[in-house]
Design goal:
The protein is of the alpha/beta class. Helix content is 41%, strand content 14%. It binds pyridoxal-5'-phosphate (PLP). Pyridoxal-5'-phosphate (PLP) binds next to helix 5.
């Protein structure tokens, strides 16, 4: 009980406080006067075929019937087929488990893989809730700081591995930086994990959190984590690719060549039951059978990325160039990013200080907002830059 209480305390973070502040402020002065970059909630419309499939599902007599705990066989088969077509993984439907979003999948993975005192490695900066899932399962979060360019420091990762390391958690494209793990980094990571597994005579798993997999802007697809390392479990969510964050649906995929394959699959299923998830929402499972592989029109995020990145760099902000997801990571011009975020509120700019992501001195801007909001926010960003003496670049 105490453990859960402590872990839950971590969810009460700056991001949530900022969003609550933003909602109150919008009610006070009008939504169009607040530049809310706090929440990663997709703004691209749900694709029409998905909406139509949901409508048709509602008319079926079995629309509200329960599904098997691991998910409908037809949906699992459709997911396996889609992944095999795109990444040649040789997955079978049995290696797919439908879960309640990436968050549900991560919770199930942590509860399955971690015994009290086991270690899980996360690469800084990382999604706020990882600690909640890891520590809620009795595990220990081991943070590996990044290189100066926010790419993972694989030497530091190797040095952090111990006999207690159960898994390494990666997130590509990354929330909060938008960085993508390169094929070279993945190959090196796989080599490090192989050697660690051999040294200790047990596998070190790779948990790949991929809710932003389709949100990439400068290439067709991200390098596939599961292809690089056989002891991989993918946590996927349809929240961002289909703009369905409230419908709570995603999947776990276990590599066919994974160590302890059968026991792991059985255990993942049992854990979901034990946690009381029973199964992911049935209506969404039925609706998505015909929609796996589709995406919303994600072009707005690329447009927003280009606009916001060029706008802020021209105003003198130091930004990490995001290759994917819908976040821009900006260096705070002072040490205390929270103080900077507080100053930004004067100009109705809501920017999340990076302390929530395990690193100090940065701000995360979620640019999944209407493009017009970004355009209109320029004077506010300019005023903030002037207050902090940033030097605008000549056009
Ligand atoms: N992982 C990352 C990196 C995220 O950014 C999010 C949500 O924003 C999640 C997991 C949880 O995804 P879902 O809400 O689809 O469960």
């Amino acid at each position: 009980m105490k453990q859960n209480y402590v872990a839950w305390g971590r969810v009460k973070n700056c991001m949530r406080e900022l969003t609550a502040y933003g909602n109150a402020r919008k009610a006070e002065i009008g939504a169009d006067r607040v530049f809310d970059f706090s929440l990663g909630s997709p703004s691209a419309p749900v694709p029409k075929p998905v909406w139509e499939a949901m409508r048709q599902t509602l008319q079926r007599p079995d629309a509200h019937e329960k599904t098997p705990p691991e998910g409908l066989c037809e949906l699992r088969a459709a997911v396996a087929e889609d992944l095999n077509r795109r990444f040649a993984l040789g997955l079978d439907a049995d290696e797919i488990q439908i879960v309640t979003g990436a968050a549900g999948g991560l919770a199930v993975c942590c509860q399955t893989l971690l015994h009290p005192g086991d270690e899980a490695i996360v690469l800084v900066p990382y999604f706020t809730e990882y600690r909640v899932f890891i520590e809620g399962a009795g595990g220990v979060t081991v943070e590996v700081p990044p290189q100066a360019d926010m790419q993972p420091d694989l030497d530091a990762l190797e040095a952090s591995l111990t006999e207690k390391t159960r898994f390494v958690l990666v997130n590509t494209p990354n929330n909060p930086t938008g960085a993508i793990l390169s094929a070279e980094s993945l190959a090196r990571l796989a080599d490090i994990l192989h050697r660690a597994g051999e040294r200790w005579g047990k596998p070190v798993y790779l948990v790949s959190d991929e809710p932003y997999r389709e949100l990439v802007y400068d290439t067709d697809a991200i390098p596939c984590v599961m292809s690089a390392y056989e002891n991989t479990i993918i946590c996927y969510s349809f929240s961002k690719s289909l703009s369905l964050p409230g419908e709570r649906i995603g999947y776990l995929a276990v590599n066919p060549g994974c160590a302890d394959h059968d026991a792991l699959l059985a255990s993942l299923r049992e854990t979901a039951l034990r946690l009381g998830y029973r199964a992911a929402p049935a209506m969404m499972q039925r609706a998505l059978i015909s929609c796996v592989g589709m995406t919303a029109d994600l072009s707005i995020y690329r447009e927003n990325r280009d606009l916001l990145y060029s706008m802020l760099t021209s105003l003198g902000y130091d930004c990490i160039y995001p290759e994917g997801a819908f976040y821009l990571f900006v260096k705070a011009p002072v040490e205390d990013a929270k103080a900077f975020s507080d100053s930004a509120k004067k100009y109705e700019l809501l920017l999340v200080p990076s302390d929530d992501f395990g690193i100090r001195g940065y701000l995360r801007l979620a640019y999944c907002v209407p493009t017009e909001t970004i355009r209109r926010s320029k004077p506010a960003f300019r005023a903030l830059a002037e207050e902090y003496g940033l030097e605008a670049k000549p056009c």
